[in-house]
């Protein structure tokens, strides 16, 4: 039997801000520096741990930094992302529906840390809403997948037609229709259609933009804008237009 092919997609280290010099005003609070250093260290430790687990398995695997993605991923039976929701979302842009994705949150938020440092700075780490594993349970979750005891959940994505042509990238979270300049008014018209009813009347709108989200994206920007969380397996869409 051929060994399963696994692509390990990694969040790069250059997304972490560089440590400021001792003469910089930003260096006034050493706790901030220690916090940033620890975030980078925890991410690196998680990558090393995931690689060591894969090394012990009978798998054909290779690592790849997410910023090196340039074409659709097709030569894999499983994609494992190590980072947060952003890394998994970027992977989804290069995948069709045939390859499952396992997200590993490499730097989950520690509630006790947030409580301790809340008066000094925001100590929130990665949310990892779409990630099914952390370093603490990665090997267990992976074994359950390889043994067929855990199955992927199908999530709805959005497709977009622009000037009659469908874009090649699908949106797992949301899309935003707006003017390229955030300070400018967006002018657009839209109509909602469904399989069970006729087209509704045309809505002409002047606003900051129109956001449409999937269930997976309902807890992200849509929720911050005043929307509501949806069951992640729902195939419904949620939209919001912001008025000026």
Report on this model:
The protein is of the alpha/beta class. It has two domains: 4-146, 3-Layer(aba) Sandwich (Rossmann fold); 161-243, Tumour Suppressor Smad4 (Sandwich). It has five helices and eleven strands; from the N terminus they run βαββαβαβαβββββαβ.
The helical percent reads 10-25%
Number of separate domains? 2
- Per CATH, the architecture of the largest domain is 3-Layer(aba) Sandwich
Q: Mean pLDDT, as a whole number? A: 90
Using only CA atoms, what is the Rg? 21 Å
Read across the widest sheet, the strand sequence of neighbours is: 2-1-3-4-5
Q: And the CATH topology of the largest domain?
A: Rossmann fold
**CATH class value of the largest domain:** Alpha Beta
Give me the count of strands. 11
* Count of runs of 4 or more consecutive helical residues: 5
Distance between the termini: 61 Å
Could you say which overall geometry the principal axes of the C-alpha atoms support?
A: globular
Task: Report the portion of residues in β strands.
Answer: 15-25%
Class based on secondary structure composition and strand pairing: alpha/beta
The CATH superfamily of the largest domain is Probable inorganic polyphosphate/atp-NAD kinase, domain 1
Low-confidence stretches: none
**How is the biggest beta sheet arranged?**
5 strands, parallel
* Sequence of secondary-structure elements: EHEEHEHEHEEEEEHE
């Amino acid at each position: 039997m051929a060994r399963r092919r696994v692509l390990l997609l990694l969040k790069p280290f250059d997304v972490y801000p560089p440590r400021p010099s001792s003469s910089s005003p930003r260096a006034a609070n050493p706790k901030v520096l220690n916090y940033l250093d620890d975030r980078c260290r925890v991410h690196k430790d998680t990558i090393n741990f995931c690689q060591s687990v894969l090394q012990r398995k009978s798998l054909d695997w290779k690592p790849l930094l997410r910023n090196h993605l340039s074409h659709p991923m097709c030569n894999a039976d499983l994609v494992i992302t190590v980072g947060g929701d952003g890394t998994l979302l970027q992977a989804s842009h290069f995948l069709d529906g045939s390859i499952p994705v396992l997200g590993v949150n490499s730097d989950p938020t520690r509630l006790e840390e947030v409580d301790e440092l809340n008066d000094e700075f925001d100590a929130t780490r990665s949310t990892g809403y779409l990630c099914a594993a952390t370093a603490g349970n990665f090997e267990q979750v992976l074994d359950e997948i390889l043994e067929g005891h855990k199955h992927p959940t199908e999530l709805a994505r959005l497709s977009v037609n622009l000037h009659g042509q469908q874009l090649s990238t699908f949106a797992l979270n949301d899309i935003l229709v707006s003017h390229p300049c955030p300070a400018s008014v967006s002018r657009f018209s839209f109509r909602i259609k469904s399989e069970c009813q006729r087209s509704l009347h045309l809505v002409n709108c002047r606003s900051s933009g129109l956001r449409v989200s999937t269930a997976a994206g309902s807890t992200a920007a849509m929720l911050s804008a005043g929307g509501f969380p949806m069951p992640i397996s729902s195939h419904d869409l949620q939209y919001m237009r912001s008025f000026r």
